[in-house]
Structure to design on (235 residues):
């Protein structure tokens, strides 16, 4: 059985990495019906963004809570249960076996999908070595995806440059979500393992997370439509 094909508009997830509710409301209003799926991470989340997430869900938008949970199992399971009650669609945890098991237990029968973050897209080989990992990026991602698959995780967050390998290891039934997406000509910023929207989709990504190239654009709706058009052409 394969993963249900996402609605084309749901393939683009806009990262609301913004400092205030006012800034987030402004971008969401500029994006209007163009964007159906938003990601809320540390910056907005710690500036009142969880209430805003509930509002977005109430207005029919999908919400991805990107807090990359990692703690003792009991704390992870109870935190995940709270996010499940909010009605969020996706939640990230780090891809450590104990954490992934606790998250899958905590979501219970809710439709919340737990995504395991493999190796952050801002990390290259040197960053991983500096953090004390003996294996390189490819081997670490592969091992984490194998373990996530054994645990029955709902999906994986990985770099678009890892997506082909992740799809091979994970099979067709679980979601692949890729940040580190950069339309041609846009600044990489702190991202190190990046690809264009077309490359990410052709590599097997189901959803692309795009933040700064859209929210820092002078015309966020036009930037979002351009990414959506590139996704549609690559499918
Ligand atoms: O490996 C990861 C996991 C999460 N992210 C998040 O995605 C967005 C990317 O934003 P850009 O502005 O498009 O770079 C951001 O919220 C990260 O926290 C990631 O980049 N890499």
């Amino acid at each position: 059985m394969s993963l249900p094909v996402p609605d084309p508009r749901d393939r683009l997830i806009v990262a609301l990495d913004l400092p205030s509710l006012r800034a987030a409301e402004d971008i969401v209003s500029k994006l209007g019906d163009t964007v159906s799926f938003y990601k809320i991470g540390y910056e907005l989340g710690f500036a009142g963004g969880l209430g805003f997430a509930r509002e977005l869900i109430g207005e029919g938008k999908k919400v991805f809570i990107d807090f990359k949970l990692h703690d003792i199992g009991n704390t992870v399971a109870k935190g995940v249960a709270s996010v499940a009650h909010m009605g969020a669609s996706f939640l990230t945890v780090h891809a450590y076996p104990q954490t992934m098991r606790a998250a899958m237990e905590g979501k219970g029968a809710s439709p919340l999908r737990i995504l395991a973050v493999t190796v952050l897209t801002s990390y290259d080989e040197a960053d991983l070595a500096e953090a004390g990992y003996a294996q390189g990026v490819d081997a670490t991602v592969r091992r984490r995806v194998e373990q996530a698959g054994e645990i029955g995780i709902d999906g994986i967050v990985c770099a678009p440059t890892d997506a082909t390998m992740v799809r091979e290891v994970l099979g067709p039934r679980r979601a692949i979500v890729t940040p580190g997406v950069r339309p041609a000509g846009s600044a990489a910023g702190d991202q190190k393992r990046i690809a264009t929207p077309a490359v990410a989709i052709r590599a097997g990504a189901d959803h692309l997370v795009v933040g700064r190239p859209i929210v820092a654009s002078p015309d966020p709706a036009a930037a979002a439509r351009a990414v959506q058009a590139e996704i549609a052409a690559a499918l």
User: Anything to note?
Assistant: The chain has a mean pLDDT of 97.
